[in-house]
């Protein structure tokens, strides 16, 4: 079992972004060709949208990016300084300074790659519908799109990779540097460590199917939600629509490290979480919350993963991991953005 006091036990690569969040109306989404519950990469037609948001709405700025959110939550719950390490590329600008300062304040050991000309990436978070339950994410990667495997080859960064025992990445870096993800995944597999990944968005399952499927044999724990699972099934011609069946099928895909089976974790919003472990389906209920208490669903899935990982690195059971995951997700949806107080009202540890 990994000691709970181990520095650098959890390692991650992701796309560090500054979230620009606002309550929007459906007409704004229509103007930019967006769907209420979806995540896409910005195209030329979206580049004016960020300034349009600032002009039209009251916006909040929150450090973001899916993987960075999960790592910040995991670090918050673990509570041991520098228990987590995060890498990604940012610009040499004010937004980058904010991201780095916030991450370090939260205890995360960030080792960013810096780009001389590209600005720090941003993500529009457009909240619509009753109680702002619908969210449309539009990421402008900018500097985040410039992360390279060369950053991992620097001696100090290579040492951070080798020191870790657990690894997590959302699916979004597949659009940036899949070779870096694969390099870390192969290290984890060869050294009997734990590599986890998130499907993250439906478009990744189809448009980035090739690098995703190349990485899958090295994935020990796969996270996703119901829409991502459905798209994975469609993209890979599984012919399945039932979430349990899709999870079972993904768990049976070949693994490079055959010492342990693949765990698949599918969240379904307010519906129970589906987990496949050792070929069996287990259903875990979520924490009920009154709709009037929901402030912002953005980051809830990231927080779920962060809570899960925080318990995982302690050697906790899947049940323990889900308990921590549910706490984190429930906590975050009652706040604006993925924002965290100094300490959680939750104890991470093995029971």
Q: Main sheet: which strands, in order across? A: 7-5-1-11-12-13-14-15-16
- Strand and helix order: EEHEHEHEEHEEEEHHEHEHHEHHEEEHH
Q: How many H/I helices?
A: 13
Q: Provide the residue-averaged pLDDT.
A: 92
Largest sheet: 9 strands, mixed
What proportion strand? Answer: 15-25%
Secondary-structure content class: alpha/beta
From the N-terminal CA to the C-terminal CA, the straight-line distance is 13 Å
Number of strands: 16
> What percent of residues adopt helix (DSSP H or I)?
25-40%
Radius of gyration: 19 Å
Shape field: globular
**Low-pLDDT runs:** none
Summarize this structure as a short list of keywords or feature phrases.
36% helix; alpha/beta; 351 residues; five-stranded mixed β-sheet; nine-stranded mixed β-sheet
Briefly summarize what is shown.
The protein is an alpha/beta fold and 351 residues long. It has 13 helices and 16 strands. The protein has helices at residues 26-31, 49-56, 66-78, 94-105, 150-153, 155-163, 178-190, 202-207, 209-215, 226-235, 243-251, 300-312, 318-332, and strands spanning 10-13, 17-23, 38-41, 60-64, 84-87, 89-91, 109-110, 113-115, 121-128, 134-140, 166-169, 194-198, 221-225, 263-268, 271-277, 280-284.
Explain what you see.
The structure is a single chain. The protein is built from 13 helices and 16 strands. Strand 15 and strand 16 (280-284) form a beta hairpin. A nine-stranded mixed beta sheet has the order 7-5-1-11-12-13-14-15-16, sandwiched between helices. A five-stranded mixed beta sheet has the order 3-10-9-2-4. The mean pLDDT is 92. The chain is globular, with a radius of gyration of 19 Å. The chain is of the alpha/beta class and 351 residues long. The protein has helices at residues 26-31, 49-56, 66-78, 94-105, 150-153, 155-163, 178-190, 202-207, 209-215, 226-235, 243-251, 300-312, 318-332; strands at 10-13, 17-23, 38-41, 60-64, 84-87, 89-91, 109-110, 113-115, 121-128, 134-140, 166-169, 194-198, 221-225, 263-268, 271-277, 280-284.
